[in-house]
Amino acid sequence: MIAETGHFALVLALVIALVQGILPLIGAQRGHQPWVALAAPAAGAQFVFVAIAFSCLTVGYLTSDFSIVNVAENSHSAKPLLYKISGVWGNHEGSLLLWILILALFGAMVALFGRNLPPDLRARVLAIQGLIGVGFLLFILFTSNPFGRLDPPPLDGQGLNPLLQDPGLAFHPPFLYLGYVGLSVSFSFAIAALIEGRIDPAWARWVRPWTLVAWCFLTGGIALGSWWAYYELGWGGWWFWDPVENASFMPWLVATALLHSAIVVEKRDALKSWTILLAIIAFSFSLLGTFLVRSGVLNSVHAFATDPSRGIFVLIFLFLVTGGALALYAFRAPTMQAGGLFAPISREGGLVLNNLLLTTAAATVLLGTLYPLFLDALSGEKVSVGPPYFNATFIPLMTPLILLMAVGPLLTWKRADAGAALARLKAALVAAAVIAGIAWWLLADGPVLALLGMALFAWLAVGVLVELAERLRLFRVPFRDSWRRARLQPRAAYGMTIAHLGMAFIILGITASETWQSESLTVMRPGESVELGGYSFTFDGARSARGPNYDTIEGDFIVRKDSRLVARMKAETRTFSNPPMQTTEAAIRPTAFADLYVVIGEPDGRGGYATRIYYKPLVSWIWFGALVMMLGGFVSLSDRRLRIGAPRQRQAVAGAVPAE
Amino acid sequence: MTRKRKRLYLVIGSVAALFVAAGIVLTTFEDNLVFFYSPSDLQEKGVDEDRRFRLGGLVEEGSVVRDGVVTTFRVTDLAESVPVTYTGMLPDLFREGQGVVAEGKLDGAGVFVASNVLAKHDENYMPPEVAEALKKTGQWQGGTQ
């Protein structure tokens, strides 16, 4: 009964989404108010029915109802409770349902928080959201029904892929989807603006919080995925330029560009059609990511067992959405009135350069990701594009971007004095030189990239702090005045400072862990030791044990530094029976300056075990930096001026608003 | 600054950025394409010693020999097979008779020195390249893919 209720709720949601997608559009065009007013309640109702469907599937998983095909194929009665819940989205149908749930949630939130929007704009935005919902509801109902029944039901389910039985999985997909789907709101706002043919600073203020929410969750979702790969796959790496990773990284790059160009629309009424285009591209990349993952064209942990009709459906949907949006853009964008003028060296100029670099970076990632697919389709030749390509294209693009990140916020709007801005960055330049010098001394004749990375870190970190000090006039006015200024600064300005600092931390983590990492790969017998990074790792034997739904071999390692006990570490190899599979549980011990990382592998049959030990300096700063970036986003979001719906249309641009 | 001048700068800036990016992309792209070959392809076409590529097929039954952290095995598409040596820890699902994709280079003696053996994430999952290579030699028996 529960499955049928869920299925029926989904069909109802589809009908409501159709109403939400069509009537308000016509109503807004013809000035028919009752139809315009329909949009908000429809968005709420759609969310309620999708939520009912999602709850039904969750109940199916919780009660291990194996008469539902989806539950029987992806769950098992012996699975711990957390993974019964997260297992709901650990498969194609369930994760699609989660996607739709989040889409409907965003629609309902726009309806709820958008009360101050002009009614026509709100109706159009919600209608576009509704139409996207129609596409995905058709997709799930016709190709990926999660509520199919099985007769007779099996005694037990086939279990969840053990790699996915991890707390990381419980959060990684929802975060990523909140990011992907959140970009649909910016997209809907862009399309609504194109239909109305009007974009002004107020529009940018309405869109910015939604882009910011999506960007924060996307940042968090990507970081979680990277962290999960780091500790669960046992390879010691944290980013592989895997096509699926790229699929989430491209929307992030474009969303970052969008976030910055929307500021120019908001403050200076310029770059309007470019911002619209970015909003369209950002969501198109989200859909492209969905297509890459769902169609099974990629070989990856994310590729669920596939069915070609699904890939074709998403591809058609992608063409309709992107093609339709771009056609509308080509038709309407020329009618938009260009706004504020600016000199090439100005805050706007800096942001334009930021946008150029970010979108070019997204384009190179796109080429590297899609080229193998095209070559396969055209010539049948199988190739892959590896990390060397991405490193070779990314580093030259990111270096100027990071140099610019310290300068840009110091430039004034309209026309700026580059010399004055650079003069203020003297401290950053000195810091960069000193750090690069120290790195050079530590490395003797080490890789140049390490020096570059450390110098960029110092330049950016100090540059960000210099900008903050400038804003507070620290050390130039009495401290009491600086404190007063500090309290009057808008939160959005602090958000920028925090997020940019997060970027500096990421650079530090990447550079340090790539440069000063050391590793050992040996067969170890009990009692044997390995020296690494100033630590001594002694293998203290291995034993078998039993977990809730797996058998495990636990290897104990005693870590000492200068004969002082630092830690006992326990690395595991787990063997699951449902489905039959092994996973590696790396033992990771973060210390003040580095991660110690131990993996135990196959026994050699003579009492020894293959072991791999890494010493990874500052690697956790990568994820810490991403967390800081996300925090910066949320701080900016809490800014009162950006409170959703707060700005009035055509409000005078706030006077001397400081850097942002 | 007139509107035209501004637009001109923008266009020049974007074109310059595009050129630089295209230059980098084109010079690095060719060198970093990693082709996929099955053991039969290797027999037919031959590959330069210094060229990195991916080798895919099944791990031949009874061919796996472990010596400490060095593993040697043969990759087969059931028509031809290639000896492989790998130093490191094999992915959890590395088994005789299962699909495998390895990345590396040939040494002078025709042994494939793998620097990376790709993990299969799921018991039932066959890398699509491997499935296709097996189909070509007429050895594919799997029904559902």
Automatic annotation (TrEMBL), chain A:
The chain crosses the membrane at residues 6-26, 38-62, 96-113, 125-144, 175-195, 207-229, 249-265, 274-292, 312-331, 352-374, 394-413, 425-443, 449-470, 491-512, 618-638. Residues 315-640 form the Cytochrome c-type biogenesis protein CcmF C-terminal domain. GO terms for cellular component: plasma membrane. Its main location: membrane. Pfam families: CcmF_C, Cytochrom_C_asm. It is found in: Cell inner membrane. InterPro entries: CcmF_C, Cyt_c_assembly, Cyt_c_biogenesis, Cyt_c_biogenesis_CcmF. Residues 89-295 form the Cytochrome c assembly protein domain. One of its GO terms (molecular function) is heme binding. It comes from the Bacteria. Keywords: Cell inner membrane, Cell membrane, Cytochrome c-type biogenesis, Membrane, Transmembrane, Transmembrane helix. It is a multi-pass membrane protein. One of its GO terms (biological process) is cytochrome complex assembly. PANTHER family: CYTOCHROME C ASSEMBLY PROTEIN-RELATED, CYTOCHROME C-TYPE BIOGENESIS PROTEIN CCMF. Belongs to the CcmF/CycK/Ccl1/NrfE/CcsA family. NCBIfam families: nrfE, PRK10369.1. Required for the biogenesis of c-type cytochromes. Possible subunit of a heme lyase. This is Cytochrome c-type biogenesis protein CcmF. It comes from Oceanibacterium hippocampi.
TrEMBL record, chain B:
Heme binds at H121, Y125. HAMAP family: CcmE. One of its GO terms (molecular function) is metal ion binding. PANTHER family: CYTOCHROME C-TYPE BIOGENESIS PROTEIN CCME HOMOLOG, MITOCHONDRIAL (PTHR34128:SF2). Belongs to the CcmE/CycJ family. GO terms for cellular component: plasma membrane. The gene is ccmE. This is Cytochrome c-type biogenesis protein CcmE. Keywords: Cell membrane, Cytochrome c-type biogenesis, Heme, Iron, Membrane, Metal-binding, Signal-anchor, Transmembrane, Transmembrane helix. Coiled coil: none annotated. Residues 29-145 are extracellular. It comes from Oceanibacterium hippocampi. The keyword Cell wall biogenesis/degradation does not apply.
